[in-house]
Specification:
This protein is mostly helical and 120 residues long. Helices cover 71% and strands 0% of the residues.
């Protein structure tokens, strides 16, 4: 197996190699799909066929989905940590439910997992 590592963030690499420039455009999270397609067409002379347009859209949607799931996971973890801290601070279940938007059962499970009883 052969493995190649390419540093797309190195400005020197971008000056030297068109393949690296192309990859940096395609994999950039800062460039939206319509701009990527324009750059591919104008700067790299790649004809925007339906197949290529769909591929670029798919790549952008895929990275957006990964980012969105990561953010959701982070928010979920932060909310779970907040609930745990509220349980530790012996806050009433009704307050924890109101702040977290979690069900009583879900909050009870967090308390149980951490060996901390709830206060009604």
């Amino acid at each position: 197996m052969n493995i190649a590592l390419i540093n797309l963030s190195n400005p020197e690499n971008l000056k030297k190699d068109n393949a690296i420039k192309l990859l940096s455009v395609l994999l950039s999270q800062e460039i939206i799909a319509t701009e990527k397609k324009r750059v591919l067409k104008d700067n790299f002379k790649i004809p925007m066929t339906t197949e290529i347009e769909e591929g670029v859209n798919y790549m952008c949607n895929l990275s957006d989905g990964v980012e969105r799931r990561g953010m959701e996971k982070g928010m979920e973890k932060a909310t779970g940590n907040m609930v745990l801290e509220l349980i530790k601070a012996k806050q009433p279940l009704s307050l924890i439910m109101q702040v977290s938007k979690y069900s009583a059962e879900r909050i009870a499970e967090i308390g149980k997992r951490n060996g901390i009883p709830l206060i009604d």
